[in-house]
């Protein structure tokens, strides 16, 4: 989708500088879709072709974000062989996913990520979204250290 007109936000600060139109007596604002450089999502299962199956509420936004990202990285709980996923239950086709690392088994407690794992799954030079992801991962690790959790 290239863009769409929506009545939401017309006449507010959000509409300032954007194209507006009146259609059938109602005012609309032109909005463009979100394009992400990097989409980090979580899936329950994946096969080696990158097809993803989500669990419960992960089905709400993960499929949309997987299609919005130029590079999509899916953290996977379980990796299965091609053909083991029922085609009717695949939520995101593998064509949208570039990397699907296995989630390492972590002890109970704080959720931990390491910067070395992020650098292994990055594609090309570090861009702003990846630098932002590194910032959040560092921040989460610092909270875990303050709680006294040991590194897995």
Provide structural commentary.
The chain has 152 residues and is an alpha+beta fold. The protein has three domains: 1-33, no CATH class; 35-103, no CATH class; 107-152, no CATH class. Helix content is 22%, strand content 26%. It has helices at residues 62-68, 115-121, 128-147, and strands at residues 4-6, 20-23, 26-31, 36-47, 52-53, 69-80. Strands 1-3-2 form a three-stranded antiparallel sheet, with no helix packed on it. Strand 2 (20-23) and strand 3 form a beta hairpin. It is extended and about 55 Å long. The N and C termini lie far apart (43 Å).
Report strand order across the widest sheet: 1-3-2
Question: What is the alpha-carbon Rg in Å?
Answer: 20 Å
What would you call the structural class?
A: alpha+beta
State the helicity in percent bands.
Answer: 10-25%
Query: What count of domains describes the coordinates?
Result: 3
**Biggest sheet features:** 3 strands, antiparallel
Short summary of the structure?
The chain has 152 residues and is α+β, with helices and mostly antiparallel strands. Helices cover 22% and strands 26% of the residues. The chain has 3 domains: 1-33, no CATH class; 35-103, no CATH class; 107-152, no CATH class.
